[in-house]
Amino acid sequence: MIKYIEETVNYLLEKGFENPELGIILGTGLGQLINEIEIIKEASYNHIPNFPTATVEFHKGKLIYGILEGKKVVVMQGRFHVYEGYTLQDVTYPVRIMEKLGIKALLVSNAAGAINLNFKKGELMLIDDHINLQGSSPLAFRGVELLGERFTDMSMPYDEETNRTFQSIAKKNNIVLHKGVYASVVGPQLETRAEYRMLKLIGADAVGMSTVPEIIVANHLKLKVAAVSVLTDECDPDNLEPINIEDIIANASKAEPDMITLFKELIKTL
Ligand code: HPA
């Protein structure tokens, strides 16, 4: 993997992706943040050597380099999911590349279902801890010890200080920001009522199909990380309605301005 990483990084350096301080993965509910960035360079995933897409299918995602709130950032517009057929190593490859480009911190957003029924759709949740239910680890491969410690510490996977800053920004701006545990599943099917009951029992506050692999690799690389979920549906097993994707997307868009405020104000403090 080291040779592949070098090749990818050299391509991006030649393109001008120089010394980014911060990496951002724009998931659902944060796409519009792109309009706030002074874009300097961009590269389609399909054109970046050794990016996962070359081996699977066309991906409309892009890696963007630019300035946001005075900071040099590298931004993933679109991420890879295991449910698209990628491996956990594929899904997390871009995190390894952003780290080699120079980032010291990674900010992540996603959409999730609310397991904790005190949390309502359209609200935001700061991820305080997680449960990996994707069936394997992005660190489970031969040679991982050449890239970082194999037995990566996960006692505090999300940066406490960054989370405190997020909470004070939320308070100042009258944004509801819950804090909780995010469980990641493979998907793409949604959960059954029995699965939602199980998720609640094991201590999850929200469930989604992303983020945890990237956070594990970010910890492997000793990056500072923080992540925020937009809650798009309420997962009440006793009153479960059939999934309505339009409704989910609408709820994600509703929360987007708040998510953008949180991220912009946080970046100012870094
Ligand atoms: N389950 C899994 N992933 C999700 C959900 C959900 O209820 N809502 C948004 N992403």
From TrEMBL:
* GO biological process entries: nucleoside metabolic process
Alphabetical list of InterPro entries matching this protein: Nucleoside_phosphorylase_d, Nucleoside_phosphorylase_sf, Purine_phosphorylase
**What pathway does the annotation place this protein in?**
Purine metabolism; purine nucleoside salvage
Q: Where is the signal peptide?
A: none
Query: What are the residue boundaries of the Nucleoside phosphorylase domain, all occurrences included?
Result: 22-268
What Pfam families does the database record attribute to this sequence?
Answer: PNP_UDP_1
Domain of life from the UniProt record? Bacteria
EC annotation?
A: 2.4.2.1
| Keyword set, alphabetical order | Glycosyltransferase, Transferase
Taken from the UniProt entry, a GO cellular component term is: cytoplasm
What GO molecular function annotation could you give as one example from this UniProt entry? purine-nucleoside phosphorylase activity
Q: Which NCBIfam families match?
A: PNPH-PUNA-XAPA, PRK08202.1
Q: What does this protein do?
A: The purine nucleoside phosphorylases catalyze the phosphorolytic breakdown of the N-glycosidic bond in the beta-(deoxy)ribonucleoside molecules, with the formation of the corresponding free purine bases and pentose-1-phosphate.
**What family is this protein classified in?**
Belongs to the PNP/MTAP phosphorylase family.
Give the matching PANTHER family: METHYLTHIOADENOSINE/PURINE NUCLEOSIDE PHOSPHORYLASE, PURINE NUCLEOSIDE PHOSPHORYLASE-RELATED
Q: What is this protein called?
A: Purine nucleoside phosphorylase
Provide the species name. Answer: Seonamhaeicola aphaedonensis
